[in-house]
Design a protein that fits this description.
This protein is mostly helical.
């Protein structure tokens, strides 16, 4: 008796999850998701309106966005000071310091013009801010 019961239990343990998953999948795909539409809508795996999970952003990208916003709200000098502090607090950002300072320089030219943007230049991350100002000036 126990051998037969054990055999039936193993069979159910293998077959039952497959049946449940398939029946659940079929049930979800045939649900009309739009309440007011009289036509039956079917959710398919190839739907083009599928939301995509946002990629996690790197610390330097988050910092760049925050510094650029600060440059717009206050001035490049404040943003450069905060860049320097962030690099001192988190040494892992040091390798991105030059690109961040260059981005601030380019944004400063867009906001203040080349002459005024150059007045905010300081020796943060070598002369990357001035390099960004120069690049943006030549490009515009």
């Amino acid at each position: 008796m126990t051998h037969t019961a054990r055999r039936i239990g193993r069979t159910l343990a293998l077959v039952l999850p497959v049946v449940l998953v398939l029946s659940g999948t079929l049930a979800v795909t045939s649900v009309p998701w739009a309440g007011h539409n009289t036509e039956s809508q079917i959710l398919t795996a190839s739907s083009r309106n599928v939301s995509v999970r946002a990629k996690s952003r790197s610390p330097q990208d988050v910092l760049r966005d925050r510094l650029l916003a600060e440059l717009q709200e206050k001035n490049p000098s404040t943003a450069l000071t905060h860049l320097q502090r962030e690099v001192e607090e988190r040494p892992s950002l040091a390798r991105h310091c030059m690109s961040l300072a260059r981005a601030l320089g380019r944004a400063a030219v867009d906001r203040y013009g080349p002459t005024r943007a150059q007045t905010f230049s300081r020796p943060v991350c070598d002369t990357s801010f001035a390099s960004g100002v120069s690049q943006q000036t030549q490009g515009s």
